[in-house]
Design brief:
This protein is mainly α. The protein contains nine helices and seven strands, in the order H-E-H-H-E-E-E-E-E-H-H-E-H-H-H-H. Strand 3 and strand 4 form a beta hairpin. The chain is globular and about 70 Å long.
């Protein structure tokens, strides 16, 4: 039997989280933005490095054959959640010491700092290429959003095809295809508001499509980014000045909440298929993304007054509450 949109109500964990966070969020307005134009966020990692960390790193990066091949930037990227796009300013690595049986004698250490792209709203396909930054007018921001909505069509169609190859349940595949239809409609609706701004077709480069890579991508891009996008869509539906935009975002918010729930349902299925070591890497990447969400939510805030959503202080608190509830 085909899965229907109404069937998602059997599991509304994300919906309940969003409702709880919105209920606790003041209705004060300030500027914010939906796009990725705020530039990279600073990061710093300073922690002990264990044998377990190294095992996870080698599982996540099959091209690295052994400890002797590990570079400082490999460790920094892995412990940073594996998002990619990092630009290091400093990096100092000391590997753990082990005995002849491979048991840890002394921990190593990793200390690195630099910048990396902010977490942006919505689901991107593997290999996604960001749209070139334009001006900061409302029309330009809406064009960027429409580009991301169109990219989400590709993401869900790509995901449906990957799930077929993995032998996933048909209802998960059907939900991805329905989500692609939703995103196609979102791109059209948002694009209609981006008056005078060209919206290019989404671009993507070749990317790995094995089960582990897809699960890792979904754990961050779907479970965190898309869930946050759903919350922001709900906030726009009640905060924006333009009544038509509020109405459009109300529809988008309901769709994106359903998509975020799909991501978490997919996460449960993916983790059940993976070896324990790979499942642990996926879990760690997701946990890192959730921990960083408050900092990156603040980095997104404050660019386009007409697209007002949350001021920085409220964005930080809302993201912290949101991440804690999702993690629970």
């Amino acid at each position: 039997m085909a899965w229907k949109r109404e069937d998602w109500r059997a599991n509304q964990t994300v919906h309940r989280v969003i409702a709880a966070v919105m209920a606790a969020t003041p209705m004060a307005c300030s500027s914010s933005t939906a796009d990725c134009s705020n530039g990279p966020a600073n990061f710093e990692i300073d922690r002990a490095l264990t044998v377990e960390d190294m095992v996870g790193l080698l599982s996540a990066k099959p091209a690295v054959k052994g400890w002797e091949d590990v570079q400082c930037d490999d460790v920094c990227a892995y412990l940073g959640g594996g998002f990619g796009g990092q630009e290091l300013k400093t990096c100092d690595l000391s590997l753990p010491a082990t005995d002849t049986d491979g048991n840890q004698v002394n921990p190593g250490s990793i200390k690195c700092s630099g910048t990396q792209p902010v977490i942006c709203e919505g689901r991107r396909p593997l290999g996604h290429v960001e749209m070139a930054e334009g001006d900061q007018s409302v029309g330009a921001v809406l064009a960027q959003m429409a580009y991301l909505e169109a990219a989400a069509v590709d993401a869900f169609e790509q995901l449906a095809e990957q799930l077929r190859g993995f032998g996933a349940p048909n209802q998960l595949i059907q939900r991805c295809l329905l989500a692609a239809d939703d995103e196609r409609r979102h791109a059209s609706v948002i694009g209609a508001h981006a008056t005078g701004h060209a919206i290019p077709s989404p671009l993507a480069t070749a990317a790995p499509t094995d089960l582990f890579s897809v699960a890792l991508h979904n754990a961050v891009e779907g479970c965190v980014n898309e869930a946050w996008a759903a919350l922001m869509a709900h906030e726009r539906s009640r905060r924006l000045d333009d009544p038509q935009l509020r109405a459009d975002f109300a529809v988008i918010a309901a769709d994106e909440t359903r998509h975020a729930q799909l991501a978490w349902d997919l996460h449960a299925w993916f983790v059940a298929q993976l070896p324990t070591t790979e499942a642990a890497v996926v879990h760690d990447a997701q946990s890192t993304a959730l921990r960083r969400l408050p900092q990156l939510a603040v980095a997104q805030a404050g660019r386009v007054a007409e697209m007002a959503v949350l001021p920085r202080s409220i964005a930080r608190a809302a993201a912290r509450d949101f991440a804690a509830r999702l993690a629970a």
